[in-house]
Amino acid sequence: MSNTHNPLTQIPIRAARWSATHPWRAMLAWLVFVLVAVGLAVAVPTTETKSSDYRMGESGRAEALQHRAGLDQPQTENVLINPRGHAALDSADATAAATEIRDGMRDAAGIVDVSEAQPNADRSALLISVQLARDQDDASALQAVTKRVQADHPDLEVREAGDVSIDSSINDRVGSDLSSAEGISLPVTLVLMLLAFGALIAAGIPVLLTATSVAATIGITAPLSHLVHAEATVSSMIVLIGMAVGVDYSLFYLKREREERAAGRSTLDAVEIAAQTSGHSILVSGGAVIASMAGLFVIGDATFNSLATGAILVVAIAVLGSITVLPALLVKLGRWVDRPRVPLLWRLNRRIGRGGISSRLLSPVLRHPAVALVLSGVVVLLLAVPALGMRIHEGNLQTLPASIPEVQTFTRITQEFPAEGTTAAVVVKAPPADRAAVGQALRRLDRDAIRSDDFVGSGRDPVRVSADGTTSVLQLVMPYDESDPKVDRAITSLRTDLVPAALGSLHVEHAVGGGAAESLDYVNRQHDRLPIVIGVVLLLTLLMMGFAFRSVPIALVSTGLNLASVGVAFGILTLVFQHGWAAGALDFTSPGFVIDWIPLFVMVVLVGLSMDYHVFVISRIREHVQNGMPTRLAVARGIRDTAGVVTSAAAVMVSVFAIFATLSMMEMKMMGVGLSAAILFDATVIRLVMLPAILVLLGERAWWPSRPRRTGGETVVETEPAYALIGR
């Protein structure tokens, strides 16, 4: 067993003892906690993130200057009128349709201005821009006008897309995707728990405990959002992380308690032993997940701050439930926890519990650890090398599902009217007396930018001036897709060469912003801070493992394996989404890059979750060493004892994340593929090949500076090769 003098071990033991001797109080306290937390979500409104929360760098300064001057880019809906198929545009029919659009939309609520119909360069299409009030977030009235005009002019295509309608469609699709994923993940998890336990009650306990932990977390995030604003998808991320860790923690505890009861111990003794062993593992792995998620705060981004807060909270609550209410449930249920049994699954579960397929795969690793380590290391390198060429970029039209009608329409608009595409904004603040000089400098800048070939004319006055004359904005248009590398080059050239040349003689405050500049600033911050985040996460993992196991080699090995897993995850993301491997099977078109926030999110989630079963396996190996086994034999026994649990834990994670790989939103697909593939690789090659191979090669040195203190038990003499024990 683990060292009972370890203060970290005492926490779950004391919590389990109190819960086991006061089961009704423990369960009632948990129920009250969950109900109060859920009540908070009803009583306290959630504060969601605002656009100002996302400002960063020079683009953030530009947006702030525009906002203070009342020059925010207005929300706009665009109506495109073009002929059906390859027919020529009937100008009379198109003009009549445009007039009906303008007349109908002028009367809609929340409309500031409706432009004249503008023809494109070859006069094959017309575009009408509708400016909405700042607080207008519903385009349904405008869409109704568009549909009515389309019905009256069947020979034309009359379509609408803009800020509000696209955002609304994306939110609807994201909500639909996440609801689908959450709805599927629950029954899938229940089926996996049935496979793991072979009994309905045992399978239901982890799901029930996880569901209450998630509900409590979502409730508490409502008041917490007044300190850390809640991102729109944080609830779904709480469900995602909560399902993964909550089920795993209950799985570890239940498996050990059942194992001890099967060895002849009473339910109370079995619960206490499970608390001393699996409870300790839950605390360590929970701490590792929290430490990993805390690394997201280093980025300083509103989305990551919100996701980190929600993830840390759900993990902490899942740990609390696992070491308090779970022991109480087990004591009250006793042997009823294994009822009612599903005969076929019960027999399958007993087979997996003795080691199953995973433990048999270990035999050649123990026979030839050096060869196994070299071969697995080569595989890791081959999969990780593509990550060196990873290109990250903000999500754009290319990463949105083409099945969304508004996305198709806006893509067509940018093709017919390039000025509606990628833009940059030069914002200048100066005293009113300098207004004329600033206007002349900005118009000269516009001409110089167009001559550089990175920008094109918009066909209208590019300069807007605030009412008080202190702030001017020059809108520049780029003839490139948002994801084209030339966009970043153009923004950099604008900031370093063109703007200083035009405004250098004026004593003014200026900044270059716009959507393209925001993306560049975000990517630059990612590049600057990603190494820091990786370093912080790995350092915290190193310190936690060193403290938990009192071993420098174990801490270093754990950190190194985490780094290998991260490299594989990044390599897979690059191969699949940047280079388009398996694009057909996964039903997407490669955008040529990985969406900017995905790698960092995948890294912290992967490191945190993979530590769950890693800590569980190391704890069992260390337990056998404490009982007098040589390290080589302890590795064999430890892997055999935990193979079924690790398989089940990894299966839950892989299944939950794989569901996201089937969704239509590219971000969800990237997250699902990256995490499911990386965790599958981590649970097999990393933890079943590299980890045991390294431990066997290290031998007793694995526990330096001192071998774990023996706590009792009969010394085991290794009279046959360790690998021969696998599968017995």
User: Poorly predicted ranges (pLDDT <50, ≥5 residues)?
Assistant: 712-728
| Helix coverage percent | 55-70%
Please identify the structural class as seen in this structure: alpha+beta
CATH class of the domain at 1-43 and 198-342: Mainly Alpha
Average pLDDT for all residues: 85
What does the overall shape look like? elongated
CATH fold-level name of the domain at 1-43 and 198-342: Multidrug efflux transporter AcrB transmembrane fold
User: Compute the gyration radius: what is it?
Assistant: 30 Å
CATH-level-2 architecture of the domain at 1-43 and 198-342: Up-down Bundle
For the largest beta-sheet, the strand count, sense and barrel status come to: 5 strands, antiparallel
Q: What's the total helix number? A: 24
How far is the first residue's CA from the last residue's CA?
Answer: 22 Å
Name given to the CATH homologous superfamily of the domain at 1-43 and 198-342 = Multidrug efflux transporter AcrB transmembrane domain
β content, as a range? 5-15%
Number of beta strands: 11
Short structural description:
The chain is of the alpha+beta class. It is built from 24 helices and 11 strands.
Write up this protein.
This protein is α+β, with helices and mostly antiparallel strands and 728 residues long. Among the domains are: 1-43 and 198-342, Up-down Bundle (Multidrug efflux transporter AcrB transmembrane fold), CATH 1.20.1640; 75-168, Multidrug efflux transporter AcrB pore domain like (Alpha-Beta Plaits, 2-Layer Sandwich), CATH 3.30.70.1320; 405-519, Alpha-Beta Plaits, CATH 3.30.70.100. Helices cover 65% and strands 7% of the residues. The chain is built from 24 helices and eleven strands. Strands 1, 2, 3, 4 and 5 form a five-stranded antiparallel sheet that branches. Strands 8-9-7-10 form a four-stranded antiparallel sheet. β8 (463-465) and β9 (471-477) form a beta hairpin. α1 packs across α9 (267-294), α20 packs antiparallel against α22 and α22 (598-626) runs parallel beside α24 (666-698). The longest helix has 35 residues, at 163-197. It starts with 6 loop residues before the first helix and ends in a 30-residue tail after the last helix. 51% of the residues are buried.
